[in-house]
Amino acid sequence: MPVPALLERLEALDVDAAGRSALGLVESLYPILRSITGDGVRATLAAVREGLELNGNDAWITHEVPSGDRALDWEVPPEWNVREAWVRGPGGDKVIDLAEHGLHLLSYSEPFRGRVSRQELDEHLHSLPEQPDRIPYRTSYYARRWGFCLTHRQRQALPEGEYEVCIDSTLDEAGSLTYGELFLPGADPREVLLSTHVCHPQLCNDNLSGVAVLAEVAAVLAKLQRAQRRFSYRLLFVPGTIGAICWLARNPDCSGRVAHGLVAANLGDRGGFHYKRSRREAPIDRAVRCAFAALDQPLEIEPFSPFGYDERQYCSPGFDLPVGSLTRTPWGRYPEYHTSGDDLDFVSAASLGRSVQAYLAVLAALEADRSYRNLSPYGEPQLGRRGLYGSLGGASSGREREQALLWMLNQSDGGRSLLDVAERSGIAFTDLAHAAAALEEAQLLRAGDRGPAAGAAGMAPRTHG
Ligand code: ZN
Predict the structure, then answer these.
(1) Is the pTM of this model over 0.85?
(2) pLDDT digits (tens, 9 = 90+) for 433-455
(3) What's the CATH number for 371-448?
(4) What's the fold here for domain 81-172?
(5) 204-234: per-residue pLDDT in tens?
(6) d(CA 200, ligand 1 centre) in Å
C-alpha cells in the first residue's frame, strides 16, 4: 500500500499558512466571554464548526447536557451567563468593568446588585501583588460567591468610600452544559481521541491555542476520505474537567474503542515542546517520540502525573485510556499563565503552525506504524535491478533513503513494527514509511498485522492491508 495519506498531507503542509489560520481563529475567539457553560462556549464551538468542511460520514455534534444531570461522581452545574458586570467608585465612574476585559469578573459570579464600602468590596477582589500590572483569572464554579479580578495597581488606587456593584448574571438550573464532538470515521473503528478544553475566557495560550490547533488538525483530517484514514478520529472540544466527565459518563465503552489519544493545550507560546506520558505504557508515547525525531525538533518528555488537563479524567483508573498530553510550555510554568499576560502577543503564528505540524506528525506516525514481512529474506534482494536506489520520495538524502530500505528489509520479520525499526535504526519514521511503500510496490515486503493499534485495551489485533 502507498504511504499513509496523512503522511502526504504532513509533508505537503504549509506550516506558515496553518499557523496564520490558527492565529486567525485565536484572534476571533479572544473577545468571547467563556466559562464551563453558557453562550460563550456555544459561540466558540459554532466558530470551530464553521471552519470545517465535512464529508458524508463525518459528523459534528454539539451536545447539550442538562444542568442537574449526574455525570459519574459530579453534577452538571446551572448554566451561567452574564449581561454586564461593573463597579462604580465613590466619584461615580466605573472603576472595574467586564466590558473592558473578560478576566475582570470572577467566573461563575452569582448575581449581585448593591452598595458596599471599600473594605467590603476588597473581600471580593482578586489581584496579583507579585505581578501588579496583570489581571488574574479566577473561577468559583461550585461555591456560590461573587468577585472581581483586577491589577494590583488598580486595587491599590481604589479610594475609601462607597462603591456601587452590578453583576447582571444568571445561574439557570434549567440550562445546560455544551460540548462539541467531531467524529471522522476511518477504515478501522478504533479511535484516536484528541481533546481540548474550551472554557477559559480571554486567554490565548491556555486555552485558545489548543482549540485552534485541533481545529487546524481537524480540517486536515476532514480533507481525507474515510478509506484514506486508517484510524477513526474523535475530537472533543469540552469545558475543562466537567465536560470531559460528561463525555466519559456518556461513553462508558470508550476503553474498548480509544486506541490512542492526546490532550491539547498551551500550543501557541514560544517555548519548546513537552510531552506528558499516558498513565500506562502506550503506543502513543512512542509515536510522539518518533514524530519529534522525524521533525528533528527537541522534545522534553515527562512522566504521567494525575494533575494538569483532562488527561486526569481520561487516565482515571476506571477508564485508563492511552492518552498523553502534548504541549509547549506546560501549565503554570510561565508567569503569564492564568493572567491577562496570556494575550494575543503571547502567542505566535509560527509557534501555532509548528504545533499543528507536530500533531499531524504524531498522527502520521500512528497511521504508518505497521509490521511487515520481508518476502525475500535470504540475503539482500538486489535493489538496483528493481530501480529502488535513488528513486524514493521523502525529504532526506539518498544515503538515508538507502539505509531506510535496508533497515526495513532487515527488520521486517513480521514481529517488529515500523516504529520499532525507527527506534532501533535512528532513521525517521517518515523515511521508513516511504521505504516500506516502495518495497511493497516491488513485492519485497508485505504489510502484516501488528501495529500500535494492538495497544487498545481489550481489543485483539486486527489484520491490515
Ligand atoms: Zn487553565
Answers:
(1) yes
(2) 999 999 999 999 999 855 544 44
(3) 1.10.10.10
(4) Glucose Oxidase; domain 1 (3.50.30)
(5) 999 999 999 999 999 999 999 999 999 999 9
(6) 7
- What totals of helices (H) and strands (E) does the chain contain, helices first? 14, 19
Cα(206) to centroid of ligand 1, in Å?
5
Separation of CA 67 and ligand 1 centre (Å): 23
The ranges assigned to domains in the chain are: 5-76+176-366, 81-172, 371-448
Q: How far is the CA of 340 from the centre of ligand 1 (A)?
A: 12
Q: Determine the residue type at 310.
A: D
Contacts of 242 (CB under 8 A, 6+ apart): 36, 71, 74, 76, 77, 141, 177
Spatial distance between the Cα atoms of 1 and 26, rounded to a whole number of angstroms: 38
Which superfamily is assigned to 5-76+176-366 in CATH?
Zn peptidases (3.40.630.10)
How far does the centroid of ligand 1 lie from the alpha carbon of residue 338, in Å?
6
CB of 168 within 8 A of CB of 182? no
CA distance 332 to 438: 46
Per-residue b or e along 61-84, where b marks 16 or more CB atoms closer than 10 Å to that residue's CB: eebebebeeebbeeebbbbbbbee
Confidence bin at 134 (pLDDT 50/70/90): very high
How many Å is the Cα radius of gyration of the chain?
A: 25
